[in-house]
Each structure stands twice: as structure tokens, then as C-alpha cells.
Hints:
The chain contains nine helices and no strands. By secondary structure, it is mainly α.
Amino acid sequence: xxxxxxxxxxxxxxxxxxxxxxxxxxxxxxxxxxxxxxxxxxxxxxxxxxxxxxxxxxxxxxxxxxxxxxxxxxxxxxxxxxxxxxxxxxxxxxxxxxxxxxxxxxxxxxxxxxxxxxxxxxxxxxxxxxxxxxxxxxxxxxxxxxxxxxxxxxxxxxxxxxxxxxxxxxxxxxxxxxxxxxxxxxxx
Length: 188
């Protein structure tokens, strides 16, 4: 809450007193998001999502490039929802980032390897508890990452993701051996 208060104070100094160099930028928002992420409060996911939407509103209203959300802000939001064991919410954040990237002609706002890695790990954690739907979702994101790896420079799937997938598949094998074997073979 104190970090948010400082962010509001920076905004008021800029707007009310005309101190342009004191106003918040994208990094300021990330720092407040990280404060919420580290707070371990139960509402931290909602606060980080709200801050991300506020950052977009401020950027669009003021038109200042320094306020534009970054992939780091999105990855922070994804991490918070994963920490809260809410992979569906983290997936919404990644989907929003993908939507922004598709509509962004300039190209700087694109998901990176970390964005996809976080999402894949989140679903593999679900799958490791014997949830075959989590395994299927992780496979879908892994395939998406592989496709992007072919098209985009700097987007790479780590070997660790494949190993984690196979480990999670082992925990799901008894649920539907044929399906899990098929998914594991395609990933392998």
C-alpha cells in the first residue's frame, strides 16, 4: 500500500505541480507490482492486475512512451497468479500480452521465453499432481513456444521444460496411458 501511495504521489507531483521528471514510468509500475508480489497478501493478484490496467490507462491518456507497459510487467503479473496457484488467471494475462503483441506494429511488446516458460511450468505443476488437463494445456503452450521459436529471434524453449513435461506425464500416465504416451512421444 505504501508503494502505491508513492506512485500516486509521483503522479500528483507531475500533474499538479508540473514536475515532469518526478512522474512515474513503466519501471515505477513494475516496482509497485513487485512490492505486491512480495507481500504474500491474498489480494496481490487483483492488485497487480489492476496496476497493469491502470498503467495502460495512464499510458493511453497521457500518451507518454515511458509509461507503456512492458513484457516484464506482464511476466510479473503472470508470476503472481502462478504463486497464488491460479494458472487460469496467469493464462489470461499471457493471452492479453499475446493480443497486445498481435496488434502492436512497433514490436517491443512481445511475450518472451520467460512468459511462456512461466505458463508451461504453472500447468506442469498442475499436471504433476495427476491432472491430465494440466498436461494437455502445458503441451499446447509448449507447442506454441516451439512455433514462435522458429519465427522469432530470442524466443527459446529450454531443455528443462521438456524434462519437466516428461516428469509430469509420468504422474498422469495411470489416468489415460495411451493419451499420455501419445503426448509424451510428440513432446519427446
